[in-house]
Design a protein that fits this description.
Elements: E1 4-10, E2 16-22, H1 25-35, E3 44-50, H2 53-67, H3 80-88, H4 90-97, H5 101-110, E4 113-114, H6 118-128, E5 137-138, H7 152-158, E6 171-173, H8 183-189, E7 192-194
Parallel strand pairs: 4-5, 6-7
Antiparallel strand pairs: 1-2, 1-3
Helix pairs in contact: 4-5
């Protein structure tokens, strides 16, 4: 039998990001840093040692099921969208967004929150110290045949639908058509907010 560690990765706000097991925590954390986008958020690691790999695997399954870290896939049947709604509250989200509670319920059932909700839900999560991964939202991405097209945000800019205050400020795309859902992620990456 060889000792195996059960580790928990937390972000700077104390939000649980990931639970795993390893014989070498340093090597496993280095693997996360190389392969997982969320690894840059790691601010703290808690470790508990077990006498065998089997004991650590069992403890890991129990911990993931109980604590539901956002970035674990195994043993974590609740979607990130459902975790966010459970932690913030369905009514609170609905009231803040100005939508019906049924809309939030449908989003949880589908396993994804509408991408247009990202900025508000992200602010709510930040205020509560809750992780808000983008995978909790239903982004649509352009198909490969449209990859040569200019970024959709550029067409919105030329259409005069962006309020341009000063460099570094958050801009608002005032016009948003349903068939342009795919532009959301590109606009977010350019600090543009679609309303």
């Amino acid at each position: 039998m060889s000792k195996t560690a059960l580790y928990r990765h937390y972000d700077a706000n104390g939000v649980l990001l990931y639970i795993g097991i390893a014989r070498s925590i340093l090597q496993r954390t280095a693997q996360h840093e190389k392969n997982a986008a969320w690894a840059e958020e790691i601010a703290r690691i808690d470790v508990e040692w077990h006498n065998s790999r089997e004991a650590a695997l069992q403890a890991e399954a129990v911990a993931i099921t109980a604590d539901r870290p956002f970035h674990n896939k195994s043993h974590n049947s609740q979607s990130p969208a459902a975790c966010i709604v459970a932690k913030l509250g369905q009514k609170r989200i609905a009231d803040t967004l100005g939508v019906g509670a049924a809309a939030v319920s449908v989003a949880v059932t589908r396993g994804k929150l509408p991408s247009a909700w990202l900025p508000i839900v992200r602010q709510m999560c930040a205020a509560e110290g809750i992780a808000c991964p983008e995978r909790a939202f239903g982004f649509k991405f352009p198909s490969p045949e449209h990859s040569d097209a200019p970024p959709p945000c550029a067409s919105l800019k030329t259409a005069g639908s962006i309020q341009n205050d000063s460099p570094g400020t958050l801009h608002t795309c005032a016009r948003f058509r349903r068939n342009e859902v795919l532009i959301w992620k590109q606009c977010v990456s350019q600090n543009l907010l679609i309303v």
